[in-house]
Write a structure and sequence with these properties.
CATH architecture: Roll
Structural class: alpha+beta
Number of strands: 6
Oligomer: single chain
Distance between the termini: 43 Å
Strand order of the largest sheet: 1-2-3-4-6-5
Number of domains: 1
CATH topology: Ubiquitin Conjugating Enzyme
Helix content: 25-40%
Number of helices: 3
Order of helices and strands: HEEEEEEHH
Radius of gyration: 15 Å
Largest sheet: 6 strands, antiparallel
Amino acid sequence: MNDYTKAYIDFNRKLIKEEFPWFDYHEFSEYGAMFTGEIWDSDRSKKAILRIVCDNGFPDSKPNLSIAEPKILHRFEGCPLNLLGLSHDFHCLEANEVGEVRICHTASWDASITLLEPISKAYLWWNAYVLHLQTGKSIDSYFNPED
């Protein structure tokens, strides 16, 4: 990991420790770094493990944001969300190499954005996903109710 990436990850580590102290940090010097932590829906009935992976191009490259647990996320209809791929309606990207649902957290990324933003967006996404399981409405319908 180069010094620029390491310094930026250390800065984000401090921010995350203050705001989300239950998140863990894992350094992979060859590949970058990873943060993992629990996220809950608003009534704390459904939990997920969030994974953020920052490659060696970070902070200039966008981190990958995925749901590590549960391994399979089912849609209202029963089909696995993991197999859906790129979807505007569900704000997700193609699954990562281990099959985890990747959350689309921003259209553009630059070094001025901290990791607090994708973590906050993951909380919103998880709550919308839980509502989708109850209603069948798309995740996007909760982010863009006028559509």
